[in-house]
Design goal:
Elements lengths: L5 E5 H19 L4 H10 L9 H6 L16 E5 L11 E4 L5 E4 L6 H6 L29 E5 H10 L2 H8 L3 H11 L8 H6 L17 E5 L12 H5 L5 H13 L11 H16 L28 H17 L3 E2 L5 E3 L2 E3 L2 E10 L4 H16 L11 E12 L5 E3 L10 H76 L7 H17 L19 H4 L8
Antiparallel strand pairs: 1-2, 3-4, 5-6, 7-8, 8-9, 10-11, 11-12
Helix pairs in contact: 6-7, 10-14, 14-15
Length: 548
């Protein structure tokens, strides 16, 4: 094979491109055979990503890039690939929000086969807990990556909440927690930032020594195709003006949980009695499963939050409400919100654990009574005793937008995602605005259609009235013509002898009646008055009057 038939590239450039777009990507770019390229990398001592590397990178898991060892080889050449490409269909990955996101793959290689394995070489299973609730899928191996330095990351997570650090890197807060764990970087415990905001002195865990990696690479999972910014908040608030967007983003950065002993928002303080009163009157037995829509639709927070978790929920709402009001919104008496003049509601529920039901003393006595009655009568009614109890577990789930939610996990609680919740409130206000305007436009079109329909009905009826009037007037004209023809015939019959006085008087009378019938003359009659030519024959019919 001649030198002209081969593609040339520096060894360092080939190394960089392989770790940027994968071996398969480089093979496709230079039209090279995949297996020949792997063989070339081995001969030139160029390390390639291990099995499972791209799966980890795709899901935001920490990965380590092998460095390029020194070598006397400066330039490498690989032959062109004349083999036909095999195309495989795009695969769909399901996000936690249950939206299908399609990732285009153009060539199937042994490396791609390893990427389809849900478990990486370390045996870590990519289950639902490894993916954030509002997970944004990785948009391809050629996207931009982050480099996480251990000492720098340590300073960042102790200077700001993890959710803010994650936004700067363009990843989820769950990903930052995993990276910190991989680099052995301690993170602030629960309640740390609330204590800091309250002015309390808190201890900072020092960065321990480690023999593990000090720097790793990971994908920017929040990077989109059209968006240049890696900040998901800026991508989400496109519908706002620049000024309003900056105000919301400033509020997102500043939002924090109030201190445990802080005075609650006045609307929340007043609403607590509603929840307490409903819970006291609640007739549902202890241990029964509770849902937001179970019997008679309880008010917000009633029946679905334990008494132990209610103070925590109130503090979360307090933080959100004060920021919404600071941005020009308001809070309603039922704790719904008015955001950008749109009515936005929040749904909050506490999880329940399903446990085996332990029979109570009363249930045991009822069973004994049933068995005793059963022996005497076949009509005995067996008591209904459930097999399981449902116990509140303290894990909250907050819904703001449909099919999107925030929930507590083993690794993170929802208090750290207040900024995202504030953004969701604004996102939901835009969804509600668009829905409202669509309904209003539909109602306007329907009203316009009804108006046109009514206008056409009136025009039709007016035309009917005019046509009937024309027909009635024509009948009168026809009657007038017949009378004139008759008068003419009478006059002609008397032409030889001449008209006597009586006949002449009749002719004058009949001629005047013809003029009275004729709508073109419309002569008033001495006794009949003006004839209403447009009316029907029955309405115009002459009738005798028996009493004047």
């Amino acid at each position: 094979m001649t030198e002209e038939q081969a593609s040339k590239i520096t060894r360092e450039q080939l190394y960089n491109e392989i770790w940027e777009i994968s071996v398969a990507g480089v093979a496709k770019k230079y039209n090279a055979d995949y297996n020949d390229l792997l063989k070339l990398c081995k001969e030139a001592d160029i390390p390639v990503p291990p099995s499972g590397y791209w799966v980890k990178l795709k899901f935001g898991k920490p990965v380590e890039q092998l460095s390029l060892p020194e070598s006397s080889i400066v330039e490498v050449a690989f032959p062109a690939n004349d083999k036909p490409k095999r195309i495989r269909k795009a695969v769909a990955k399901k996000s936690v929000e249950k939206d299908l996101v399609h990732e285009d793959v153009t060539e199937k290689t042994p490396e791609d086969e390893s990427d389809n394995n849900p478990d990486d070489e370390t045996g870590e299973n990519l289950d639902d807990d490894d993916v954030e609730d509002d997970y944004v899928p990785y948009l391809g191996v050629s996207g931009k990556h982050n480099t996480y330095n251990r000492e720098k990351l340590y300073k960042e997570v102790w200077a700001n909440p993890v959710v803010k650090v994650a936004a700067q890197y363009g990843v989820s807060d769950v990903a930052i927690h995993k990276i910190c764990k991989k680099l052995k970087v301690p993170t602030p415990p629960l309640g740390y930032w609330a204590k800091v905001s309250a002015g309390a002195k808190v201890a900072k865990t020092p960065l321990p020594k480690t023999n593990g990696p000090t720097q790793i690479t990971g994908a920017k999972t929040f990077e989109g195709v059209k968006e240049k910014s890696s900040d998901p908040a800026k991508q989400s608030l496109e519908f706002l003006s620049d000024t309003e967007r900056e105000k919301v983003l400033s509020a997102v950065k500043a939002i924090e949980m109030p201190a445990e002993n802080a005075q609650l928002h006045k609307k929340i303080a007043a609403y607590r009695s509603v929840v307490k009163s409903w819970n006291q009157k609640d007739r549902k037995e202890e241990g029964a499963q509770r849902k937001k829509d179970y019997y008679y639709n309880p008010p917000f927070l009633a029946g679905v939050i334990s008494n132990e978790s209610l103070p925590r929920v109130y503090r979360i709402l307090d933080a959100l409400f004060r920021r919404v009001e600071g941005l020009g919104g308001s809070v309603n008496d039922d704790l719904s919100l008015l955001v950008r003049n749109e009515h936005v509601s929040i749904e909050i529920a506490e999880g329940q654990d399903k446990v085996e039901h332990v029979i109570t003393k009363q249930e045991a006595q009822a069973l004994i009574k049933y068995r005793d009655e059963k022996r005497r009568s076949s009509w005995a009614s067996e008591p209904q005793i459930r097999k399981y109890d449902y116990v509140f577990n303290g894990r909250l789930r907050i819904n703001i937008r449909q099919s999107r939610y925030f929930r507590d996990t083993d690794k993170i609680n929802i208090e750290s995602r207040l900024g995202e919740m504030l953004i969701e409130l604004y996102e939901e206000s835009e969804v509600i605005r668009l829905d409202r305007e669509a309904r209003e436009e539909e109602a306007r079109k329907k009203e316009e259609a009804e108006r046109r329909k009514e206008e056409r009905r009136k025009r039709y009826n007016r035309e009917v009235e005019r046509t009937i009037a024309l027909e009635n007037a024509a009948l009168d004209f026809e009657t007038a013509c017949r009378i004139r023809a008759y008068v003419k015939a009478v006059t002609a019959s008397c032409e030889h002898d001449g008209l006597d006085e009586e006949t002449a008087a009749w002719v004058d009378w009949a001629t005047k009646k013809a003029d009275w019938f004729d709508p073109t003359v419309a002569r008033d009659d001495e006794l009949f008055g003006e004839r209403e030519h447009e009316k029907s024959s029955s309405e115009k019919a002459l009738k005798e009057i028996w009493r004047w």
